[in-house]
Amino acid sequence: xxxxxxxLDLPAMEPPAGEVQNLDNPPNGNNTVIGIYSVCIxxxxxxxxxxxxxxxxxxxxxxxxxxxxxxxxxxxxxHCVCWLKMNGTTGNLVHTWNFRIGAMAPFYKNGFYGxxxxxxxxxxxxxxxxxxxxxxxxxxxxxxxxxCYILGTINVLTYFIAITVDSSACKxxxxxxxxxxxxxxxxxxxxxxxxxTINAVIDVFILLLPQGIIxxxxxxxxxxxxxxxxxxxxxxxxGAALARMSLGYIYSDSKDVAYFFSQAGLFCVVEMTAAIxxxxxxxxxxxxxxxxxxxxxxxxxLLRSFSGGSTYRTGAVDTKANAYVHIDELGKAVPLAxxxxxxxGESAKSGQTGQKRAESIETTADSVV
Length: 369
Fold this sequence. Notes:
Keywords: Membrane, Transmembrane, Transmembrane helix
CATH topology of the largest domain: Rhopdopsin 7-helix transmembrane proteins
Order of helices and strands: HHHHEEHHHHHHEEH
InterPro entries: Rhodopsin_dom_fungi (IPR049326), SAT4-like (IPR052337)
Structural class: mainly alpha
Helix content: 55-70%
Strand content: under 5%
GO cellular component, one term: membrane
Number of helices: 11
Strand order of the largest sheet: 1-2
Distance between the termini: 65 Å
Main location: membrane
Number of domains: 2
Membrane topology: Multi-pass membrane protein
């Protein structure tokens, strides 16, 4: 059966009662999409750069997950490019009845590849987080370690199946986004429900796994709260995952597929960004704290030089006490040894005690960051 000459100019669907159709200049959410994606790209970029600096340069303790985060981040950027390119079609967050049939193909083509990139990011980032949990909380026991491995395996299998099914759902593949191409497609509208549910469950486990261990650490209550908050960034990821799961149910029953398809992308990018932050955040406080101390020390020396005061430096000789001073993690001065005193043994012993105390605190902090 031949199609009418003006087929591509026809509306994709009739508007529901009470809605006014606008095919020429429909209202859209392009600015909303640009704003959300810009913030997410900026946040993810900052945290990935800080993570790589912390592991590759500051501590020089890079592991396999630190090398894998870079290609994962590149795929994240590829998703963002695809979704932002949808602004150049009829637009993002546009109701289906405001689309012309001919405008659906470029919209869905970008969306198709954007979804594949999203699935690839989620396939990788969750196991990276779990590997990081195993490293940070390695003393938690074999049960914790095996639970992380099991969750990571389930996640990889889930998204591998999702990518395989979605990318091979139509023969030829272009029939996925272009209804004018004759082909055969299987129904995959329930696929987001399955992947969304499994994804949300894994996110909840990733969020809860470290919390009990954190509160058993030998740290001050304030520091425990601070560390717990770093890991609780996962709440944002869980919220986005639950929202995307809910959209999966709405999408499967709704005729306004273009609008909800576009809306799902916003929750996808928020979820990916939160996952990248969860992976990166635990390693960042230490180099940032060191940078802050150096900056504070430099500013202090500069101010004292202007005021004509004496300049004191960590490791410098104090003219009053003639002692070498070590600043421990708590910010307290611990005398390590008298430099010109016959009682150097006693001072050195005192310094060793202080140094051990500082190292003990630092070791506890290192088990978290």
